Amino acid sequence: GRKWTEVGSITPELKDQVILIRGRVQTIRPVGKKIAFVVVRERGFTVQCVLTVKVDLVSSQMVKYATSLSKESIVDIEGVVSIPEKPITGSTQQQVEVQISKLYCVNRAVPTLPINIEDAARSEVEIEQALEKGEQLVRVNQDTRLNFRILDIRTPANQGIFRIQCQVENIFRQFLLSEGFVGIHTPKLIAGSSEGGSAVFRLVYKGGVPACLAQSPQLHKQMAICGDFSRVFEIGPVFRAEDSFTHRHLCEFTGLDVEMEIKEHYSEVMDIVDRLFVAMFDSLNENCKKELEAIGKQYPFEPLKYLRKTLRLTFAEGIQMLKEAGVEVDPLGDLNTESERKLGQLVAEKYGTEFYILHKYPQAVRPFYTMPCHDNPSYSNSFDVFIRGEEIISGAQRIHVPEFLEKRAGECGIDVKTISAYIDSFRYGAPPHGGFGVGLERVVMLFCALNNIRKTSLFPRDPQRIAP
Ligand code: 4AD
């Protein structure tokens, strides 16, 4: 095979070398009949290629042919790398040109596209400026983007977002493996709901048996602990039949779950959260610079502020901070989105971090399997974790005594019969344990300060969308 060069790695050091690239036609600009500029894009990076009529090498027919190519067609180009006289602007545009000697069209795109990638890639500020200048421009709305997602995800920002997502997953796995965790997979078709009755997709299993799509791996990851895997993690789909259409709820998302034995205190679980996420943010900042830059160009954002040792506040301390700021909330209730955001602001001002853990939540607002506090059963050994004032994680110590678990399930209105295998798992010797669940799309959304979770889901499923 011949040697191919990626558009993203054509650097000035390649000057005068012949290279071979494959990409998409982003734009074609003919200048008279003898010259055409072809901007080629590959995975979010672009390079300007120049076709100039030259005796025995490039004919005027070839220039005409190139000019006829439709945008987004796939092309192979062979040419010599040169350094343009005028410097090129744009962080994803390579600082070189390619003088074309050969150009083949591998596959044509239809002549009219529902989304123009260049328009879809502009920031709000760039759109405003273009409109002021009277440029013809179509503002691409969210529904159009999602309807034609395979075009939309070609923008540099989107290419960056999904590479960041992959890296988050990768670090999650690598970190936990290095800490002695084992990766597992739990069933997504289950007999009863795993997080309580609301927001569950119900279906009919073989033989007419009622079943659910798992709202979390909660029950089975705990059963794995009962099965002597003392530390487990899972990366898998999570289904929630959410009714409300919000910026941060999907009906299917990717859960990053952890469950582990606790030797002495539920803070051992928060220690893992702390070290895992500091390692993750460090790695994203260090290893994903190009991606973060591409995202920031379209959706400008400030890098996340986080501390070397993650701040932990108790729920009561959080309530007190809100109270001092004039926000009254029920000390034994839950925080709503607005008060969570407000607390996020207060914490950032006071402690200089946009990433923190809030723990010891009121027992009444936590799921049935949550362990109450030893010294005050109105509170629980549980926590939520926030980025920029929005929840990305919830976690807790679990009840490992079967009689107590059964009692709590009943009190929370759960039909104990549907989870009998789960409860029975604790009858054969179960260690104290706890864990947490992370929403992958939320982590990426909030790390990059994006305003909508649909931007970080490749093909989002929400209450109004199940296609494409
Ligand atoms: O807070 P949740 O519901 O907690 C659980 O599922 C527990 N079983 C976790 C545990 O181990 N105790 O969900 C965990 C995380 C949330 O913090 C949020 O990041 C994400 O999952 N999440 C959603 N993400 C997108 N769309 C939704 N509808 C989400 N619901 C929860």
From TrEMBL:
Residue ranges constituting the Aminoacyl-transfer RNA synthetases class-II family profile domain according to the UniProt record: 162-460
Enzyme class name: ligase
An annotated Gene Ontology molecular function: RNA binding
Region forming the signal peptide: none
Annotated keywords: Aminoacyl-tRNA synthetase, ATP-binding, Cytoplasm, Ligase, Nucleotide-binding, Protein biosynthesis
GO cellular component: aminoacyl-tRNA synthetase multienzyme complex; cytosol
SUPFAM superfamilies from the UniProt entry: Class II aaRS and biotin synthetases (SSF55681), Nucleic acid-binding proteins (SSF50249)
Reactions listed under catalytic activity: tRNA(Asp) + L-aspartate + ATP = L-aspartyl-tRNA(Asp) + AMP + diphosphate
Entries under PROSITE patterns matching the protein: AA_TRNA_LIGASE_II
Family of this protein: Belongs to the class-II aminoacyl-tRNA synthetase family. Type 2 subfamily.
Protein biosynthesis in keyword set: yes
Entry keyword S-adenosyl-L-methionine: no
EC number: 6.1.1.12
Coiled-coil annotated spans: none
PANTHER family: ASPARTATE--TRNA LIGASE, CYTOPLASMIC (PTHR43450:SF1), ASPARTYL-TRNA SYNTHETASE (PTHR43450)
Main location: cytoplasm
Matches recorded under InterPro entries: Aa-tRNA-synt_II, aa-tRNA-synth_II, aa-tRNA-synth_II/BPL/LPL, Asp-tRNA_synthase_2, Asp/Asn-tRNA-synth_IIb, NA-bd_OB-fold, NA-bd_OB_tRNA
Annotated protein name in UniProt: aspartate--tRNA ligase
